[in-house]
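Worked problem 6 (solution included).
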Amino acid sequence: MPETIDRAAFAELQATAGADFVVELVQTFFEEAPQMLAELRAAQAAGAAERFRRAAHSLKTNANTFGAAVLGAKARELELGGLPADAGGMDALQALYDEAAAALKELARG
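Solution. The predicted structure is:
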Protein backbone atom coordinates (compact mmCIF):
# COMPACT_ATOMS: atom_id res chain seq x y z
CA MET A 1 0.00 0.00 0.00
CA PRO A 2 1.40 3.44 -0.92
CA GLU A 3 2.38 5.76 1.90
CA THR A 4 -0.12 8.44 2.93
CA ILE A 5 2.21 11.20 1.76
CA ASP A 6 4.83 10.57 -0.93
CA ARG A 7 7.85 11.90 0.96
CA ALA A 8 9.84 12.44 -2.24
CA ALA A 9 7.06 14.60 -3.72
CA PHE A 10 6.75 16.55 -0.46
CA ALA A 11 10.53 17.08 -0.29
CA GLU A 12 10.53 18.25 -3.91
CA LEU A 13 7.78 20.76 -3.10
CA GLN A 14 9.84 22.03 -0.15
CA ALA A 15 12.94 22.31 -2.33
CA THR A 16 11.05 24.16 -5.06
CA ALA A 17 8.83 26.44 -2.97
CA GLY A 18 10.81 26.69 0.26
CA ALA A 19 9.98 24.97 3.55
CA ASP A 20 8.41 28.09 5.12
CA PHE A 21 6.09 28.60 2.16
CA VAL A 22 5.12 24.93 2.22
CA VAL A 23 4.05 25.35 5.86
CA GLU A 24 1.75 28.18 4.69
CA LEU A 25 0.43 26.00 1.84
CA VAL A 26 -0.30 23.18 4.26
CA GLN A 27 -2.19 25.59 6.55
CA THR A 28 -4.25 26.81 3.60
CA PHE A 29 -4.99 23.19 2.67
CA PHE A 30 -6.18 22.53 6.25
CA GLU A 31 -8.54 25.51 5.92
CA GLU A 32 -9.84 24.71 2.43
CA ALA A 33 -10.04 20.91 2.35
CA PRO A 34 -12.77 20.61 5.02
CA GLN A 35 -14.81 23.13 3.00
CA MET A 36 -14.29 21.02 -0.13
CA LEU A 37 -15.38 17.90 1.74
CA ALA A 38 -18.49 19.73 2.99
CA GLU A 39 -19.20 20.92 -0.55
CA LEU A 40 -18.91 17.35 -1.82
CA ARG A 41 -21.44 16.15 0.74
CA ALA A 42 -23.79 19.06 0.02
CA ALA A 43 -23.54 18.52 -3.75
CA GLN A 44 -24.20 14.81 -3.30
CA ALA A 45 -27.24 15.52 -1.14
CA ALA A 46 -28.54 18.06 -3.66
CA GLY A 47 -27.93 15.78 -6.64
CA ALA A 48 -25.66 18.46 -8.14
CA ALA A 49 -23.30 16.37 -10.25
CA GLU A 50 -21.27 19.25 -11.71
CA ARG A 51 -20.74 20.87 -8.29
CA PHE A 52 -19.67 17.47 -6.96
CA ARG A 53 -17.24 16.94 -9.84
CA ARG A 54 -15.67 20.39 -9.41
CA ALA A 55 -15.19 19.96 -5.64
CA ALA A 56 -13.65 16.50 -6.14
CA HIS A 57 -11.34 17.94 -8.83
CA SER A 58 -10.18 20.74 -6.51
CA LEU A 59 -9.51 18.35 -3.66
CA LYS A 60 -7.62 15.99 -6.01
CA THR A 61 -5.42 18.80 -7.30
CA ASN A 62 -4.63 20.11 -3.82
CA ALA A 63 -3.90 16.64 -2.43
CA ASN A 64 -1.55 15.82 -5.29
CA THR A 65 0.36 19.08 -4.69
CA PHE A 66 1.53 17.69 -1.34
CA GLY A 67 2.14 14.15 -2.53
CA ALA A 68 -1.04 12.87 -0.87
CA ALA A 69 -1.45 10.46 -3.76
CA VAL A 70 -3.85 8.05 -2.05
CA LEU A 71 -6.20 10.92 -1.14
CA GLY A 72 -5.78 12.38 -4.63
CA ALA A 73 -6.58 9.06 -6.27
CA LYS A 74 -9.79 8.65 -4.23
CA ALA A 75 -10.84 12.22 -5.09
CA ARG A 76 -10.13 11.48 -8.78
CA GLU A 77 -12.22 8.32 -8.56
CA LEU A 78 -15.12 10.39 -7.18
CA GLU A 79 -14.52 13.15 -9.74
CA LEU A 80 -14.80 10.72 -12.64
CA GLY A 81 -17.45 8.45 -11.15
CA GLY A 82 -20.41 10.80 -11.11
CA LEU A 83 -22.67 11.25 -8.10
CA PRO A 84 -22.28 8.33 -5.69
CA ALA A 85 -25.45 6.53 -4.64
CA ASP A 86 -24.46 6.44 -0.97
CA ALA A 87 -22.05 8.03 1.49
CA GLY A 88 -19.50 5.20 1.37
CA GLY A 89 -17.16 6.98 -1.02
CA MET A 90 -17.36 10.20 0.94
CA ASP A 91 -16.70 8.41 4.22
CA ALA A 92 -13.64 6.76 2.68
CA LEU A 93 -12.47 10.13 1.32
CA GLN A 94 -12.90 11.73 4.75
CA ALA A 95 -10.83 8.97 6.37
CA LEU A 96 -8.07 9.42 3.77
CA TYR A 97 -8.12 13.19 4.33
CA ASP A 98 -7.79 12.68 8.09
CA GLU A 99 -4.77 10.39 7.55
CA ALA A 100 -3.17 12.80 5.08
CA ALA A 101 -3.76 15.79 7.36
CA ALA A 102 -2.09 14.04 10.29
CA ALA A 103 0.89 13.05 8.12
CA LEU A 104 1.20 16.56 6.64
CA LYS A 105 1.22 18.10 10.13
CA GLU A 106 4.19 15.91 11.00
CA LEU A 107 6.05 16.62 7.75
CA ALA A 108 5.41 20.37 7.84
CA ARG A 109 6.93 20.51 11.34
CA GLY A 110 10.04 19.03 9.77
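Discussion: The two ends are 24 Å apart (CA to CA).
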